[in-house]
Amino acid sequence: MISIGIDAGAATTKAVVLRENEIAGYTIIPTGFDFRKAGEEAYREVLSNCGIGESEVGKILATGYGRSSIGFADKTISEITAHARGVGYLIPAAHTIIDIGGQDSKVIITENGKVVDFLMNDRCAAGTGKFLEYTAKALEISLNELGTLALVSKNPAKISSMCTVFAESEVISLRAQKTKKEDIAAGLIESIILRTIVMVKKLGIKPEVAFVGGVAKNPGVVKAFEKALDTRVQLPEEPQITGALGAAMLI
Amino acid sequence: MNDQMAKNDIVLRSLDLFKDAFPGRINQILKSKEEGKKIIGTLCLYVPDELIYACGADRVILCGGRSAPIEAAEEYLPRNLCPLIKSSFGSVIDQKCSKTKSCPHFGLVDLIVAEATCDGKKKMYELLDKYIPTHVMDLPQKPENQNALEYYIKELESLKDVLEKLTGNKITDVLLRNEIKSANETRRLLHALYELRKRDSPPIRGTEMLKVLQQMHFLAPDEFRKNLVLLFDELKVKKRESSGPRIMISGCPMASGNMKVPEIIEERGGLIVVEESCTGTRAFWDLVDENKEPMRALARRYLKIPCACMYPNERRINQILKLAGDFNVDGVVYYTLQFCHGYNVEKYRVGEALKKSNIPLLSIETDYSGADTEQIKTRVDAFLEMLE
User: Cβ of A218 under 8 Å from any chain B Cβ?
Assistant: First the structure.
């Protein structure tokens, strides 16, 4: 039995092929403007990666912000339920899941792979991948560089603006004050994790902690979380696919 | 499945009486105005309707639930203010200052009887008075205090004077007792309707019920009661059923025009079985004692309303827990308007109490715009999936 999970995220679209309950392959592509088009593309790509014909596919389940645009899916499910399932499969010991994606951040508390409580940020993109993407631009470095640069900082700058647009101007004034680049980078990361930490504390941390979503690929953010939570944070081998994986498992 | 759908699809004709009531009601108000009747506007359940009707006036509730008037209001009011306050104020000034009169009843009001509930409203009333004469009733903020009841009775006495002066009619005990009786009758009917919602498969959905309650704030009481009777009779005979995780909504009012969150909840498969809100149980829960001196009996009933502007507000938490049990609720959606400090702060204590009773909670803080619709859908989906 082959099933496909598609996670139509705000920034990237992910597809996972599950064959007899094992990951047979996956793909991650930028979403662009059109959720539906990205979903179709990810679907075709993952099938060809795995050498699977469309006729062999059993069911398709869509999740993520654009899940309702994936018209060819048999069913949709919220990404919160999907992540809980996906992480539960990859890291069974994890009961607190932090997911920071391009558009939102969530904290999910689970029991046996099922959601028992969760919190999600409100409408604005503060404290998400978008925040880092914009503010890295103000530092004139790439997103990856931001994470590695932050690791060498000894004195993170205080960035008080939660709003992405305001933080960008704050970065520019810090630059004018000749603050070190690595300190600004570390300050930015600290400011984004602060929001998530509040959500974790509101729900009450339940070990172990897993970190997923695109932002989990950023070593600076991972380290900052470990420091702030005073615990090790578990990462799946590919932190971006847990939603799509969970969807494929929930068929 | 088809059978289930069919049961859901049985049309309730009496619901149209509430849905289509707007133009008729406007004409009715225009006509009574021509006949010399005074129109009172109110913005809160702490103002007893019985006093207004007993002096021969009519009343409409002016709480705004639409997003359109907010832009006009923001010329006067800060952006970071609750949308209900802005929408209400915007609707009044729109009527007084512009040519686009979409809700004409806001312009027909002779006197606004307002109340000292939250700070945002109090300060807004100072501005509102420039457009429509506004009488602000004070409220004891600690209703369990020994002298709270006497103080509130005094405020009701002053309101009585104001109303008598405006209308030239005397509010006699007999008239007031009659109004109390009618209002109690409406409350009893609503209780009977809510009893039906306790069923495993209620005959009416939350979005349908909310539209009915929103009309309670707008229609003339006799007409509202007449329509309720028809609805109740229809529900008794029609084999209508509905299903889904049983949700209680608790929190801020959902004034007419504001259906965003309940619509999302029921469109995604939830079933709202009770609303602990001003457009829900708070509007009718307690009855006025018909055997006691009427002013005192009124005061006792109205002071029981568990609004988050009161301190302490243990009674609201107790009411939420009781309703959750009585209506066999699977989960609570705690609904607040942005910048509504009372209900937003009280969320923590409600959440603690629900956690102790093992009742899951989803909190949604929003405004009247559609900007967060998709995010709310995700959260509601996840919450319903969690409950299933």
Answer: no
Judged by a CB distance cut-off of 8 A, whether residue B374 touches chain A is yes
Q: What is the CATH number of domain B19-174?
A: 3.40.50.11890
Chain B residue whose CA is closest to A109: B386
The angle formed by the CA atoms of residues B22, B191 and B227, to the nearest 5 degrees, is 30
Would the CB atoms of A120 and B365 count as touching at under 8 Å? Answer: no
Interface check for A231 against chain B (CB to CB < 8 A): the answer is no
**Residue A206, pLDDT above cutoff 80:** yes
Cβ atoms within 10 Å of A115's Cβ, excluding its own: 24
- The residues pairing with A17 across neighbouring beta strands, listed in sequence order, are A4, A25
C-alpha A72, offset from chain centre: 24
Whether A237 and chain B come into contact, CB under 8 Å, resolves to no
CATH class of the domain at A2-82+242-249 = alpha beta
Q: pTM above the 0.90 mark?
A: yes
Nearest-CA residue of chain A relative to B382? A78
Contacts 24+ apart (CB under 8 A), B307-310: B307/B45, B307/B46, B307/B117, B307/B278, B307/B282, B307/B342, B308/B340, B308/B342, B308/B343, B308/B345, B308/B346, B309/B117, B309/B118, B309/B139, B309/B141, B309/B342, B310/B141, B310/B142, B310/B143
Mutation choice for A interface testing from B375, B384, B388 by most A CBs within 10 A: B375
Domains B2-15+177-387 and B19-174 share a fold: yes
Q: Which CATH code for domain A95-235?
A: 3.30.420.40
Return the ∠ at Cα A100 (arms to A94 and A104), rounded to 5°: 130
Span A215-248, pLDDT tens digits: 999 999 999 999 999 999 999 999 999 999 999 9
Residues of chain A neighbouring B360 (CB-CB closer than 8 A): 116-117
Position B2 scores a pLDDT of: 41
Q: In this structure, what token pair is assigned to residue B26?
A: 């406007």
pLDDT digits (tens, 9 = 90+) for B104-129: 788 889 999 999 999 999 999 999 99
Model ipTM value: 0.90
User: Domain residues of chain B, as ranges?
Assistant: 2-15+177-387, 19-174
Residues of A within 8 A of B378 (CB-CB) are 65, 78-80, 120
Q: What is the pLDDT of residue B4?
A: 44
Whether B352 has a pLDDT exceeding 60, the answer reads yes
Contact across the interface for B385 and A79, Cβ inside 8 Å: no
**What would be the CATH architecture of the domain defined by B2-15+177-387?**
3-Layer(aba) Sandwich (3.40)
